[in-house]
What we know:
Blueprint: H1 7-15, H2 23-44, E1 54-55, E2 65-66, E3 72-78, E4 81-82, E5 84-85, E6 109-113, E7 116-120, E8 129-134, E9 137-140, E10 148-151, H3 164-185, H4 190-210
Parallel strand pairs: 5-6
Antiparallel strand pairs: 1-8, 2-7, 3-4, 3-8, 6-7, 9-10
Helix pairs in contact: 1-3, 2-3, 3-4
Amino acid sequence: MAQVTNFKDRIADYAGSLAETDDEALIQYTIDCCQEVSKTLASKNANDLFKFTLRSGFITSTDPTSVMEIKNIIGVVRDGIQATEGNALTSISYRDEESIYFASKRDPKFWIENGALNIAPDPSGSEQAYYLYIPEFSVENFSSGITKIVDADGGSEVFPQKYYEALILCISLKVLNRRLNDYLETDEDIELVNGIQTQMGRLDAEYQKLLGLE
């Protein structure tokens, strides 16, 4: 795997001139590809999704926890036991000991209602809970220095560097696809179109190989 310096230079290695694509668009491609790579890996092995998660702080209150800003909650753990996802429609039964849906300490439940995370049985200071989630990705040093993918809120590195090369290939494919569409709209030389399509095929094969999709 090539050594990663900054993503912009590495993308140019694969896609050629980036004159028609500004840094803002490239950074958005990067964020989109972070989601694509993580979801692609998870489609093969669900446990791979946990490579991209962060853990919340400990929850000790009986009050629901606001998760309005969290797009993807991957799992919830209460007192060391993974909770099963439930739903608001049957949540009243989770605290009813006579119900077949009763949530015990050994079989906790969680659900989202009105933008808030609910857990049954209620967490406490001695039986704490937390959730795992996919953060909002942000890009540091895209065009100079050493690029890193970080949590947009906390700034910690959140995307495993072992997948950076696949990420760069994904971005390069988006750049080439945009160039291809531009050429097709302007009736550009068919040889240029064929060259782009050939390069896209080669990069896509390498991308698939890196992610174990072959």
